[in-house]
Amino acid sequence: MEDFTVELDPETQLYCTLYLFINVTNVHEIREKIVGGKLYCCVTKASLMVDALQAVIAVNKAVLNAKRNCMTTKHVYTEILFCLSLSKNISRSLNEFGISDSDKNIVVILIHKHDEKQTISADILDSIKGERIPVSKIQEFTDLDLIKKTYKINEDELRISNITDAIVSRISCKDFMLIK
């Protein structure tokens, strides 16, 4: 199975690994373990992910915020959900991008040092009851209408840009934008 791992900003000396799971049957249990501090990862809805780049940009931003002691949330993994969202309201961001009991397709996001991936991944991967598939298939589980609504993307914008670029621009510039 292909892994999707990318090096983050060199300043952080960290990497990000993404896993895509479908038909997950224990989402409630996963969310409880994350909230309870038993699983150290970020899990988001696959329906709101259009491309791995979207997650990587949010993760990189969250990790840099953590390194610079300027996080909005209390933990780097919730900071990722906050960075994915256009909202500046923490609760709304976590509800919007965090998993709920009705989600069956999820993206798991790990942050790790170069040599820690296997150790960190093992416990998390063992905790998820679902089918792991390549991250390259993420668009098969994307809800474009929901993404357009969530990121406030209209058809005029998509005539001059693609959806991934529109989302990445919003994530990158969230701190400087006034969202209507």
Describe what you observe in this structure.
This protein is an alpha+beta fold and 180 residues long. Helix content is 43%, strand content 14%. The chain contains eight helices and five strands; from the N terminus they run ββαβαααβαβααα. Strands 1, 2, 3, 4 and 5 form a five-stranded antiparallel beta sheet that branches. Helix 2 packs across helix 3 and helix 3 crosses helix 4. It starts with a strand and ends in a 7-residue tail after the last helix. The model has no long low-confidence stretch (mean pLDDT 93).
Topology diagram in text:
Elements: E1 4-7, E2 15-22, H1 27-35, E3 42-45, H2 52-67, H3 76-84, H4 90-97, E4 106-112, H5 117-127, E5 131-133, H6 144-150, H7 155-160, H8 163-173
Please supply descriptive tags for the structure shown above.
180 residues, alpha+beta, 5-stranded antiparallel beta sheet
Quick summary of this structure?
The protein has 180 residues and is α+β, with helices and mostly antiparallel strands. 43% of the residues lie in helices and 14% in strands.
Instruction: Summarize the biggest pleated sheet.
Output: 5 strands, antiparallel
Q: What sequence of helices (H) and strands (E) makes up the elements? A: EEHEHHHEHEHHH
- Overall spatial form: globular
Can you tell me the residue ranges where pLDDT is under 50 for at least 5 consecutive residues? none
What is the tally of helical segments?
8
Report the span from N to C terminus: 42 Å
Mean pLDDT reading: 93
Summing up helix and strand content along with how strands pair, one would put the structural category as alpha+beta
Please estimate the helix content. 40-55%
Instruction: Please count the beta strands (DSSP E, at least 2 residues each).
Output: 5
